[in-house]
Amino acid sequence: MIRRIELYNFKAHAKAVFKLGEGVNFIYGPNGSGKTSLMEAVAVALFGSQWVRRTGGRWADYLRRGAAAGEVKLHLSHMGREVVVVRRFGEGGSSHSGTYLSIDGSTVARGDADVTAAVATKLGIGVEEFRHLLYIRQGELRLILEEPEYIDRVLRLDEFDKVDELVREAYNELKAKRERVGGRAEELERRAPQLRSRIEALSRRLSEAEEALARLEADEARFVEAERRYLALRERYISLSKERESLEKALEDGARAALELERDLEQLERELEEVRKAEEELKSLPEVGDVEGEYHQLRQLLATAERVPPEVRSYDPRALEEARRRYEEAARKHAEVRSRLELLRDVLRVAKMSEGGRCPVCGAPLTREAVQRHELEALGLEKEEERLSRQIEQLQAEIKRLEALDRTYRTYAQYLSVDVQAARRRLAELEALYQRKREVERRRAYLSALVSRRGEAERRLAELRARKAEAERKIAEANGRLAAVEAELKTLEAEVKKAEEEYAVLRARHEEYLRAKSLALELRRQLEEARGELAAVEAELAKARTEAEKLERGLGAARNIRSVLGELKPLARQILTKAINEELNAVFLKLRHKESFKSAHLAEVDGRYVLKVSTPSGPIDHRLLSLGEQNLLALSLRVALARALLGGAPFMMFDEPTEHLDEEHRRKIVELVRDLTSVVPTVVVTSHLGEFEEVADVVIQL
């Protein structure tokens, strides 16, 4: 029984835990909420890669988008023991270390294939039984009644046909091979006498070739010696001819090099003559005094004096002192006026507060005429204060201007006394002297450079004279060797001609010897090949006869196996059908909704399975029943098959069993699922409608 399932990054579920119990477990939610994913999680946990391959999917199809790894953890209760199956996986497949099966806390299998094998061994559930009997996917409830081969696939009876097909293919292959081996044996029996005749003919021809070879061996020895002597003389003649060509080329190159050396010597002598002339000119160059310093100093002085602004030349430093004195005088007067004005304002303020025509401070008489006089005086002082303020501002601006002009004046003070016109005339004189000095210095540098090359030129001159002497010596040696080579070539030419004539005579006999030797070698090779081929043919013939006998025995065995398989399949179907019918009646009677249905019986009619229901009026074929009654029969048959093959159905899962059914048929499916718990401990059903909620023991809403 399924207790709990935990999902991590499985399809639409990031992290979820679902608890299930005995009875009806109803998974309710809209389309796309992950109901089918929960069913598939059970299948993946139990069968891993087997399930993925059977459904034609990939591991990546079960992984939540964007996640690197996912996990399914299934808790089951089996025969009083707690079983936990864990599958951890990524896009490429399951993790070996993260996939395991434990029973009562002890790990009994690890890795994808071992865990799947342990599920089949420990729980007694294989992937085919699970797919056909325990997990009924959407729209597949009645498939067991509609497909003729469905029950045979569940019972594995189609394996008999597969084995018979394999045996038939093996029989045909053995038969074809027997025919090929028989034909090859006949061909080999014809081939052996032909090879023996060929061996005799080759042996006669080889004896004749060896006799001819023995007659030519003396001439072959003479040919070898003549060839050696001819090739040695010819090689010496060619070597001397090449040496003559080399010497002639060397003489030509030596003569060309001697001419080049002669030209180089003439060039160097001209260079030395130029050096001697440069020495004489260098001594006659005039000495010009040092005018450069005075020229640059006067040039800088004149450039600065010409930049003096006109206002600086007309500036008098006493103007700044006069402006400062006037500013101080104006500021002093402004302070006196401001002080007198503030005093009068205080008197007028006191007068406004006086009582009885007396000063409230000193008590002296304070007439109206005195007050008016003070007011007029205050008005005049205010105007004087404004005039003095404007004068102070103007003097401040004038002082700033004069201070800036004074700074510029002090900067150029030393240049104000310079006579610009006289300085320009003197600068022109100095520039002419300076240019003259530069020309003399450039000429002196050029002549000094020429004079400095004297030593190098004299060294090169000595070197070239030595190289010229060496070249003349080599030309003399080459001329001597060339004369000796030409004399030896004349002697060798007659010897080479005589050796070549002897070599040409013996070469014809040598070619005849080679043909005879080649023929003998080829005949020996063909004779060895023919003898080897004959031995191989005789060995292959013996092997073919032995193989033909074995294939004949194999054909007889294959015929016997096909005969036995033809008898076993009907017998196995009869035994399994009987066991299914015993379970079918018990399940059907618990799930039926009509008392008139007395029993259900699975029969084979014309090679097809037919479910018949017994009624008081007689048996009824399942194809004549209503859709709801067919659902009842299909469900009963699946439970019966599970009992017959597995010993019982530990759980059953239905994915949207009411999809595309009307209200009446949906109600009947609900009743079937409710009654199914009397024979199956745990039933899991999904739907996007709420029809199972009233019969559910556990409701999981997504």
Labels describing this entry:
alpha/beta; Rossmann fold; 15 strands; Helix Hairpins
Quick summary of this structure?
The protein is of the alpha/beta class. The protein is 69% helix and 13% strand.
Can you write the helix and strand succession as a string? EEEHEEEEEHHEHHHHHHHHHEEEHEHEE
CATH class category of the domain at 2-156 and 592-701: Alpha Beta
CATH topology of the domain at 2-156 and 592-701: Rossmann fold
Structural class: alpha/beta
How would you state the average pLDDT, rounded?
A: 79
Spatial extent as radius of gyration: 65 Å
- How many strands appear in the DSSP assignment? 15
Count of alpha/pi helices: 14
| Approximate helicity band | 55-70%
Largest sheet: 7 strands, antiparallel
Low-confidence stretches: none
What does this protein structure show overall?
The chain has 702 residues and is an alpha/beta fold. Among the domains are: 265 residues, Rossmann fold, CATH 3.40.50.300; 103 residues, Helix hairpin bin (Helix Hairpins). It has 14 helices and 15 strands.
